[in-house]
Amino acid sequence: MGVWSFAQAFPVILEHAQGETTLNSQPARVAVFDLAALDFLMALEIEVAGVAGASWPDYLEHYSDTGLVSVGTLFEPDFDALAELEPDLIIIGRRTQPAYEALSDIAPTLDLTLENGDFVTGFRRNLALLGEAFAVQSKAEALDAAFVDALAQLQSQADGSALTLFTVNNNIIINAQSDRYGMLHELTGLPSVAPPAESEVAVRPEPGSPEALALAEQREARLQVALAAEPEWLFILDRGAATGGEGQAEQTLAEHPAVAASAAWQAGRVFYLDPPTWYVATGGYLGTMDTLEQLQLRFAP
C-alpha cells in the first residue's frame, strides 16, 4: 500500500510505531505529547486541546500560552488532567513511549516515534497518517509534495561527504546516519564518514567512572577516524542550547585540535542545526522544511 492509499471514511485503522489504533470518528479533542507531532498539526492547521509542557522552539512557543490544557510533560503525563480533558485522541513520541499502554486506556493513542536511520520514510508516513486521522488527506498530500520537491532540490546541490557532531558539556559525540541525530545525511544525500559504533550505550555511566573514561576514549577514537576521512561538511547539534542553556558548540569544537584543523572547519563548511527544533521537536514538518531551505542557501554555488 502506498503512502497516500487512504481510507475515505471512519472508522479507520492507523498503523504506527506501537501497532495499530482504530479511530471510530474524526478526533475533536486532541492531547499531544510530542513537539514534532504538534509541528505537523500546525502545518495541517489542526487545533489541539491539550499539550505537554516542554522547552519550546520559537515557532511553537505560542502553544505554551494559548489557554490549552497542560497535560503534563513529555516524560510524565498528568493523568488527572487527561481525565478532565477527556481527549478522543492522544499523540506521543519517543519521550512518552513508556506511558503508551496507560495512555491507550484513556483514549486511542498514536506513537509517531521515528526509527533511527529511516527518517524520510517515517516523516512522510507520519504526515500521511495524520492526514488520514483528521480527514485532511489532500492538504497532507500537498505538504508531502512540497517536501519531496525541496528534498530533490537540496540533494541536487549537495556534493561530497559530511560528519554530524553532537556537542554536550564540552564533549563531542559522533552521530552516524543510523544514529538518532544522523538524519541530515539522509536529507542531504551526503554520506557520513563516521565509522560505525561498536555497540550502543544502554545506560549512561557515572561521570568520572572507569566506564565513562573508557567511553570517552572510544568516542575520541571514532572522531579521529572520521576527521581523517576529510568530510566536506560538518553538521552540528548543540545539546546545551537545546533546552534554554548557553550554547557552547563553537567553542568546544574550536578547542578540539583535530576539528579545528579539519578542512571543513577551516573553510567554514559548518552547518549548525537549530538546537530546540532538532533536539526537542525532531522530525516536525515546519522545522524540517525550514532546515532544508537553510541548507539550500548554504549549498548554493
Automatic annotation (TrEMBL):
One Pfam family named in its UniProt record: Peripla_BP_2
Keyword Lipoprotein: no
PROSITE patterns: FE_B12_PBP (PS50983)
Residues of the Fe/B12 periplasmic-binding domain: 29-301
Keyword terms: Ion transport, Iron, Iron transport, Signal, Transport
Protein's cellular compartments: Cell envelope
GO BP annotations listed: iron coordination entity transport
GO cellular component: outer membrane-bounded periplasmic space
InterPro entries: ABC_transptr_periplasmic_BD, Bact_iron-sidero_bind
Main location: other
Family: Belongs to the bacterial solute-binding protein 8 family.
Record-given protein name: Iron compound ABC transporter, periplasmic iron compound-binding protein
Protein species of origin: Nitrincola lacisaponensis
